[in-house]
Amino acid sequence: LSWCGDILCQLDVDMDNIQSRKTAHYIVTSADTVGVDEQTIIDVLTKRTYSQRREIAFSYERKAKKDMITALKGALSGSLESVILGLMKSTTQYDASEIRGSIKGLGTDEETLIEILCSRSNTELLEIKQVYKELFKKELDKDVAGDTSGNFAKLLLALAKRAEPSAVVDSEKIDQDARALYQAGIGVKGTDVPTWISIMSERSVPHLQKVFQRYKSYSPYDMQESIIKEVKGDLQKSFLVIVQCIENKQLYFAKRLNEAMKGKGAKEKLLTRIIVSRCEVDLKKVCSEYKAHFGESLQKAIQEHTKGDYQKVILSLCGPEE
């Protein structure tokens, strides 16, 4: 690997100046040597925020007279490249790009679609839709509709199109919704899926948390158990993600990370997507939930199931054990 004859040997950043939006100072040393200093790239880019990484990229371009992202693509490969290039996008840009990748070309990566669309807040989904259109000149709703079908498609589109629900928690409405969920599922033969979609896509998180608690006074099963009994396939997976994220979003991602590291090796695509997408959102809390739920740290699990520079970059994003 090479930087086309140049190696990024050192990038020293004046953090105070970046944080105060003043001029950033960098040292970019080039050498006519074959090879790449992956450790420096990892150290520099994983210990900065997205806005700081963008400043580094602008400075690199001024110093080296070349685009840093293009240079990174030429220098890196495999899972390390995927992580580093992911970090050069904002969280919203990364989510939009992952959605686009899941529906572009033949076949659909339903797992990625479900994870992102069913776990993001209304505000995040609105931003994703805007960025998706800016990046790909396409409407997210139309692309999702074109690659999915049936009630699964209706649920995803309801999530993508929903307006910001009222933050007011109405105790009377809580009981009405809990009863409606029961009567649309366990309490009747068959399942009234449109009612489930309506309630789960149009209510606020605090409201639904109380609805799911009240639901247990009507049903012999909790909401997740009811979903498993009533619906199947991608629709089941989608409803489960919604409920799990409403109940404890960080625990949901901790469980997903555990799934990514079962058996030998790791599902690096899944591991990368969660670590990169949550690193500036709630990754510290995800790490705490992981340790509380599984009895070992996320960092230890990563050490056991990954190796090389990929392990280094993932561990650096997670930070030290607490």
TrEMBL record:
Family: Belongs to the annexin family.
Domain notes: A pair of annexin repeats may form one binding site for calcium and phospholipid.
Pfam families found in the cross-reference section: Annexin
Record has Calcium as a keyword: yes
Keyword match NADP: no
Gene label: anxa2a
Keyword terms, alphabetized: Annexin, Calcium, Calcium/phospholipid-binding, Repeat
GO CC, alphabetical: cytoplasm; nucleus; plasma membrane; vesicle membrane
Protein name: Annexin
Lineage: Eukaryota, Metazoa, Chordata, Craniata, Vertebrata
GO molecular function: calcium ion binding; calcium-dependent phospholipid binding; phosphatidylserine binding
InterPro entries reported for this sequence: Annexin, Annexin_repeat, Annexin_repeat_CS, Annexin_sf, ANX5
PANTHER family the UniProt entry points to: ANNEXIN (PTHR10502), ANNEXIN A2-RELATED (PTHR10502:SF18)
GO BP of this protein: negative regulation of coagulation
